[in-house]
Every structure is written in C-alpha cells, then in structure tokens.
C-alpha cells in the first residue's frame, strides 16, 4: 500500500515553517549567552531597561542591541541612562561573558551611574572592537597598560568614572583614535608625551582629574583637533606656544581651574572658529590681548578669577551666550555694549568688575533668555525691577554689595528663580511670600521691615535689616 504524497508534503511544509519560526525567534547562541551573562551581572534595574532581554527571543530586538543584517551577529551594545530620570540606571558589573560577542565593534554604556568594578579587560579579546564609551559610571582602579594593544580603536571614552593612577604611556600606540576622553576621574601624574602620536584626534578631554606638571608643548602634531578640555586639574606654567597651531579648527579651548600663569597669549586672537574659551580660575596677569576683537564667533567666554587688568578690548561678537569676567582687576565702568547688544545671551557674570552705573540705564536688547545675572560687588545704583520683571526663565540673580534702592515687594519672583542675593544694598519694603520657593536667599543688611514669611532660610539670610521680625529672627511684637 502506497502512502499519498500529499500528507508528506504537508508534513514537510509544517517542519520547514517551524524551523523558520525558530530561526527567526533566536539569535546566535554565543551572542545570546553573552548578553544574558551580562544581564546576570546586573543587580538592580529599577526602570526595567533590560526587560526585553529574554532567552529564546531574538536578541537583535532587545533594547540596546544592534546586529548585522546579513548574519544577525551582535555588533554593538548601547545602554544609556537618562540624567533627568531618577530610576534610569543600572547597578552591577560588566560581565566577562560579553567576550563571547565576537562581532562586537562598539560598547556604549553611558550614564548608568552604578556600574562598578575594574577596567573590563575582556575587551582585549574582541577582534573587531573600535568604539568604547563607558561613561559616567563607577569603574575604578587603574587603566591597564595593556590598553595600548587595542590598536584598532577609533574612540576611547572612560569619562566620569573613578579611575586612579597615571594615564598609561601605552595609549600613545592607539594611533587610530579620533576621540580620547578620560575626564572626570581621579587620574594623577603628567600627560604622557606620547599622546603627540595620536595625530587623528578631533576630541581630547582630560578635564576634572588631578593631573600635574605643565601642559605638554606637542599640539603642532594635531591638525584636526576641535575640542581640547584640560580644565580642573593642577597644571602649572604657561599656555604652550604650540597651541597656536590649532587656530584654524579648534572650537573649544578649556583650561580653567588650574595654576596657569603669565599673560594670555596674543595668538588666541587668531582662533576665529572658537566657540568656547575658558581660562577661568588660574593666575593669568596683564591685559587681555587686543586681538580678542577678532573672536567674532565666540559664544562662551570665561576669564573670571584671575589677575587681569584694564583695558578690556572691544569685542566684535555677533552674539554671545555666556560671559564671565568676574573677580579680576577690571574697571569697566559699565556693562559692555557688545554683551548688551547680544540677542542670545543667557548668562552674564560681572562680579567686582568696577561697574558704576544706574541699573535702569542698562537696556539689553534681549532679556527673555537670561538664566544667570551676577553683578555683585560693584557700585551699581537704581532698581533691578524693570529688568528682572521682563525675564521669564531667570534662575539666579546676584547683586550684593551695590547701592541698589527699590521696594522688594515690586520684584516679580518667577517660578524658575532659585537663587537671589541682594545683601548689603538699600532695599526696603516687606519680604514677599514668594521667596519661600527659592533654594537660596540673602537679603541681609538692607532696610526691610515687617514679618518674615514662613521659609527654610537661616537667620543670616535676614539679619541686619531695620525691623524684620518673626522666625528665624526675634518674635514680632503684638
């Protein structure tokens, strides 16, 4: 008796369909095993970032996983926390099991905050790895000297961790790097001279460490550098002459919060592509070069907390976003017109700049975008009411130690305002209830009177007025 071919055909079709469904629902076993091993090393995932990572499903569809379309091998792992979302983080370690992902070319573990452990040395076993971004976590220990073996790397970012010790000299072997970001760690020692070999760099960031010595004079090797961040270290000496070679392309030069000395070099006026220049909190002396008038594209200029003297050059900016000249030895007399005429400025800080003017005479082109205004320690008279009542997004206003005279009750306290300091002026009237929503307040040593509204501020915020009363000062008389 012969079997009909029709049932066999149906059976073959069902088996074939089953195979297709199974193959479509899974990924390569090694990739799945490696990823699930990583998940097992995570001890806390409050936002369910890895909820889609389930065995037997297609790992190419899991959150943060990317695959090649032809062979469905995992090529990158990208998990990122959101700084504004409280529970958007992961706790745990980076599991060795990721070494099974042999096709991996990029690891992006950013802003996860609680990933701890040492440098993940398993990355040395990944033959195709080109991009490492393990940023804003809690990795610690030393960066291994063997990191120099990863000569295929195009980008290495370990910013925002807790790495200690020196920057490995072997990094000089990573000649394919376009980005080297080691900022926000606890690194010590000097900058390896061998970094001059990384001639493809466009982004070099070593800020916010404990690096010492002078800034190396090796920048003539870099023809494509656009971002240079060395702020918040312990560098001493002068700005090296070879930085002048970066003028054609450099957009960000950040050297603030170090121990740099000498005069600001005149060659900085040649940096016509400069967006941001931060030389704050150093020991620079002398005058600001007249060549700064050539910086027509600069948006952020911070020269605060140095020993700079008059005269300040006339700038020719088309629009500046933030300006900070505070705490030098300037006698500006008035708020610079080139800042006043900017339609996009949001931060103006001119504390102790020798300004002597009536505040009503200052009429900036645009007040809408202002976040921060600091005019402390000048000789400014008049009232800020007309100015501040035109702002909608003001976060902080500091004007202590001036000669302002106005009724505090006329000041509009916008919802965004967090910091208000009017100490040591001639402010009068009552303290409005709206100040209770601020984070910091200081109206001490004025001529305010009446009962203080219920606030969280200490007595030092209100002391030295004519007749303020009530907590945290003495009780009001009935």
TrEMBL record:
InterPro entries (UniProt xref): Leu-rich_rpt, Leu-rich_rpt_typical-subtyp, LRR_dom_sf, LRR_N_plant-typ, PGIP
Location (main, coarse): other
Protein species of origin: Acacia crassicarpa (northern wattle)
SUPFAM superfamilies to which the protein is assigned, alphabetical: L domain-like
Domain Leucine-rich repeat-containing N-terminal plant-type: 28-67
GO cellular component, one term: membrane
Entry's localization field: Cell envelope; Membrane
Endpoints of the signal sequence: 1-24
Topology versus the membrane: Single-pass type I membrane protein
UniProt-recorded name of the protein: Leucine-rich repeat-containing N-terminal plant-type domain-containing protein
Sorted UniProt keywords: Glycoprotein, Leucine-rich repeat, Membrane, Repeat, Signal, Transmembrane, Transmembrane helix
Family: Belongs to the RLP family.
């Amino acid at each position: 008796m012969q079997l009909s071919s029709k049932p066999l055909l149906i059976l073959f079709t069902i088996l074939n369909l089953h195979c297709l469904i199974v193959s479509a629902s899974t990924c390569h076993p090694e990739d799945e095993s490696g990823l699930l091993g990583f998940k097992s090393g995570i001890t806390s995932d409050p936002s369910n970032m890895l909820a889609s990572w389930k065995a037997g499903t297609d790992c190419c569809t899991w959150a943060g996983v990317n695959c090649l379309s032809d062979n469905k091998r995992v090529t990158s792992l990208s998990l990122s926390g959101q700084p504004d979302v409280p529970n958007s983080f992961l706790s745990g370690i980076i599991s060795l099991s990721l070494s099974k992902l042999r096709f991996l070319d990029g690891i992006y573990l950013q802003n996860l905050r609680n990933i701890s452990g040492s440098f993940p040395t398993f990355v040395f076993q990944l033959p195709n790895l080109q991009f490492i971004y393990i940023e804003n976590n809690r990795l610690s220990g030393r960066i291994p000297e063997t990191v120099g073996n990863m000569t295929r790397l195009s980008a290495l970012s370990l910013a925002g961790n807790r790495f200690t010790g020196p920057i490995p000299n072997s990094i000089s072997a990573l000649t394919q790097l376009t980005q080297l970001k080691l900022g926000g760690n606890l690194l010590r020692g000097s900058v390896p001279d061998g970094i001059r070999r990384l001639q493809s760099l466009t982004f070099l960031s070593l800020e916010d460490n404990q690096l010492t010595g002078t800034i190396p004079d090796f920048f003539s090797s870099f023809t494509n550098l656009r971002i240079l961040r060395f702020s918040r270290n312990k560098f001493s000496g002068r700005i090296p002459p070879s930085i002048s070679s970066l003028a054609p392309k450099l957009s960000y030069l950040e050297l603030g919060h170090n121990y740099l000395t000498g005069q600001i070099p005149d060659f900085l006026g040649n940096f016509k592509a400069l967006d941001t220049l931060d030389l704050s909190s150093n020991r620079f002396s002398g005058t600001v070069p007249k060549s700064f008038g050539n910086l027509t594209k600069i948006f952020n200029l911070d020269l605060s907390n140095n020993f700079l003297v008059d005269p300040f050059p006339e700038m020719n900016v088309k629009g500046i976003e933030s300006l900070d000249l505070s705490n030098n030895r300037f006698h500006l007399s008035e708020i610079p017109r080139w800042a006043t005429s900017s339609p996009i400025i949001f931060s103006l800080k001119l504390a102790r700049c020798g300004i002597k003017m009536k505040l009503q005479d200052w009429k900036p082109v645009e007040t809408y975008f202002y976040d921060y205004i600091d005019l402390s320690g000048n000789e400014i008279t008049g009232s800020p009411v007309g100015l501040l009542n035109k702002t909608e997004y003001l976060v902080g206003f500091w004007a202590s130690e001036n000669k302002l005279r106005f009724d505090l009750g006329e000041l509009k306290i916008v919802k965004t305002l967090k910091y208000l300091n009017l100490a040591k002026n001639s402010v009068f009237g009552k303290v409005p209830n709206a100040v209770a929503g601020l984070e910091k307040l200081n109206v001490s040593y004025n001529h305010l009177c009446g009962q203080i509204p219920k606030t969280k501020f200490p007595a030092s915020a209100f002391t030295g007025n004519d007749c303020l009363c009530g907590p945290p000062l003495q009780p009001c008389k009935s």
